[in-house]
């Protein structure tokens, strides 16, 4: 078998994933605060290994899937770093295809993992096509960034942690790219309302739900390096069709302003994608008396000032 099966599972076991990855992944904190006179909580997932949530799904896929000594994947940056790090921890050789446009803040730590890196095309979809061809050609397991039940289950462990550590939170807001994180969080959220937030220029979730199936959409946003999946994954789509969530959109200007507020208010330096839920909350598009916003990654360039 050269790639993960795309058959939609009848159940995705988030609790089993939590047990598998516990020896390796960090249990990131939830911070409670007040901004503009409103109570809000932040799941500080940028403190995760690799600086983003993606290592959760990668670890669960490698630990829960068919044993393999080699793995191939494609990524806009964070998933590749998660897979490469999980592979290093588990003694697996990883080859990661990335777009030529991958930010240096993600490319540099990816190279440090020892994984083989191949740059192809301007967007994730091109890199993914090349990675799939490599996997088929050499008979290596392909690990999808979001369209894999084990990856979705691993990402869902983040929702379990919020439910356990912040039971007072009634809503969880999550940035959406290919849908693996928001689908997993929906399953791990213990009945809480989940809001999937997208940039206006990257609408894979909105397009899929409006069409009744995953469809290709344009990719054009300051957050597209992380949220630039042109199509929602089939596995996330089926999860969200059976377990509906709310949706919200934010503009690039709102994302940049939210990044600035996270720094000025809390000294949290994030990549644009991680500010997307906060942007929606600032704009009043996240319901709930005590919402929790997932700050999903911080792999952006920063400069130290002497």
Largest sheet: 6 strands, mixed
Q: List low-confidence stretches.
A: 1-10
Q: What is the highest CATH level, the class of the largest domain? A: Alpha Beta
- Spatial extent as radius of gyration: 18 Å
Summary of the model, kept short:
The chain has twelve helices and ten strands.
Notes on the structure:
The structure is a single chain. This protein folds into two domains: 20-53 and 149-294, Rossmann fold (3-Layer(aba) Sandwich); 55-142, Rossmann fold (3-Layer(aba) Sandwich), CATH 3.40.50.1100. Strand 4 (93-98), helix 4 and strand 5 form a beta-alpha-beta unit. The strands form two sheets. A six-stranded mixed sheet has the order 1-2-10-7-8-9. With 306 residues, it is α/β, with parallel strands linked by helices. The chain contains twelve helices and ten strands. It has helices at residues 14-21, 54-64, 78-90, 104-112, 124-138, 149-165, 180-188, 204-211, 224-227, 234-242, 252-266, 276-282; strands at residues 30-35, 38-43, 70-74, 93-98, 116-119, 141-142, 171-175, 193-199, 246-250, 291-294. Helix 7 runs parallel beside helix 10 (234-242) and helix 11 packs across helix 12 (276-282). The N and C termini lie far apart (53 Å).
List the main descriptive attributes of the protein structure presented here.
Rossmann fold, 6-stranded mixed β-sheet, 306 residues, 4-stranded parallel β-sheet, alpha/beta, 2 domains, 12 helices
């Amino acid at each position: 078998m050269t790639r993960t099966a795309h058959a939609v599972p009848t159940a995705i076991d988030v609790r089993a994933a939590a047990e598998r990855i516990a020896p390796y992944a960090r249990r990131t904190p939830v911070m409670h605060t007040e901004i503009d006179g409103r109570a809000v909580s932040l799941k500080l997932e940028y403190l995760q290994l690799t600086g983003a949530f993606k290592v959760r799904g990668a670890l669960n896929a490698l630990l829960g899937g068919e044993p393999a000594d080699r793995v191939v994947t494609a990524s806009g940056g964070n998933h590749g770093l998660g897979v490469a790090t999980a592979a290093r921890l588990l003694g697996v050789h990883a080859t990661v295809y990335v777009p030529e446009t991958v930010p240096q803040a993600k490319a540099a730590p990816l190279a440090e993992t020892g994984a083989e890196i191949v740059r192809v095309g301007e967007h994730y979809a091109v890199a993914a096509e090349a990675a799939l061809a490599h996997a088929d050609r050499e008979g290596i397991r392909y690990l999808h960034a979001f369209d894999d039940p084990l990856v979705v289950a691993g990402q869902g462990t983040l929702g379990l942690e919020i439910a356990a550590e912040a039971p007072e939170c009634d809503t969880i807001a999550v940035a959406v790219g290919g849908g693996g994180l928001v689908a997993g969080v929906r399953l791990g959220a213990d009945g809480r309302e989940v809001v999937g937030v997208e940039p206006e220029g990257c609408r894979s979730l909105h397009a899929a739900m409006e069409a009744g199936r995953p469809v290709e959409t344009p990719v054009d946003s300051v957050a597209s390096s992380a949220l630039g999946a042109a199509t929602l994954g089939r596995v996330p789509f089926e999860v969200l069709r059976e377990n509906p969530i709310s949706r919200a959109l934010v503009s690039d200007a709102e994302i940049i302003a939210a990044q600035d507020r996270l720094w000025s208010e809390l000294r949290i330096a994030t990549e644009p994608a991680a500010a997307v839920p906060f942007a929606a909350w600032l704009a009043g598009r996240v319901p709930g008396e005590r919402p929790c916003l997932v700050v999903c990654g911080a792999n952006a360039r920063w400069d130290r000032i002497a």
